Amino acid sequence: MNKAIIIGCPGSGKTTFAEKLQKCTGLPLYYLDAIWHKPDKTHIPREEFDERIKEIFITPEWIIDGNYSRTIEMRMQECDTVFLFDLPT
Questions:
Q1: DSSP H stretches of helix in 1-89
Q2: Residue-wise over 10-31: b if at least 16 C-beta within 10 A, else e?
Q3: Parallel/antiparallel/unpaired status of strands 3-8 and 81-85
Q4: Which structural domains are found in the chain, ordered by start?
Q5: Widest distance between CA atoms in the chain
Q6: Which one, of 58, 62, 67, lies nearest residue 85 by Cα?
Q7: Between the chain's N and C termini, which has fewer beta carbons within 10 Å?
Q8: Confidence (pLDDT) at 9
């Protein structure tokens, strides 16, 4: 496993799992919420968001935590592992 995404319903434990996975593997961890949201509670444009995700893809190893369903397909094409948290909130 070199490139993993963690997706699933809100409140299912994705971020907690991502942090534990990062500690076990040493892979860089990227939070989509941290990329999307600006400090002033607004968000970056979609095009910029997509470009920032594509910049992560270029690197040889990563974990990406978050849903953002509009970008799931592109992330699934780039990863080698998917963790799906299909649990009740």
A1: 14-25, 32-36, 46-58, 72-78
A2: eebebeebbeebbeeeebebbb
A3: parallel
A4: 3-85 (3.40.50.300)
A5: 35
A6: 67
A7: C
A8: 87
Tokens at residue 56, please?
A: 């992560």
Residues 69-87: b if buried by 16+ CB within 10 A, e if exposed: eebeeebeebbeeebeeee
Q: What's the token pair of residue 62?
A: 């990563």
Which of 26, 62, 30 is closest to 49 using CA atoms? 30
Tokens of 73: 């397909």
Single pTM value for the model: 0.93
Count CB-CB contacts under 10 A for residue 6.
24
Residue 88: pLDDT over 70: no
